[in-house]
Structures are given as C-alpha cells and as structure tokens.
Amino acid sequence: xxxxxxxxxxxxxxxxxxxxxxxxxxxxxxxxxxxxxxxxxxxxxxxxxxxx
Length: 52
Description:
Radius of gyration: 17 Å
Order of helices and strands: HH
Distance between the termini: 26 Å
Helix content: over 70%
Strand content: under 5%
Shape: elongated
C-alpha cells in the first residue's frame, strides 16, 4: 500500500483524498487477486495440493 501511495506524484490535499486513493488501491488489489484465482486453483490442482 505504501509503495502504491508513494508512487503518486501528487500528495493528497485532504484526508478524504488520501482515503479515496487507499480505497482505489485496495479495490484494484482485490480485483487482481480475484482474477488470478482460477489460475491459482488450477496450479494447486495440477500439483495435487502440494506447493505450487
């Protein structure tokens, strides 16, 4: 989260601006995690539950 926030060139002027950025970063992270789940589950299945 800190790296993502530090990557922005503009500093938030208000706490509400910071909160909006945090919510967007978190939503993007969760979306990417959700999108990767089918591949992750396939890998687990291919390795019969062992380390992937």
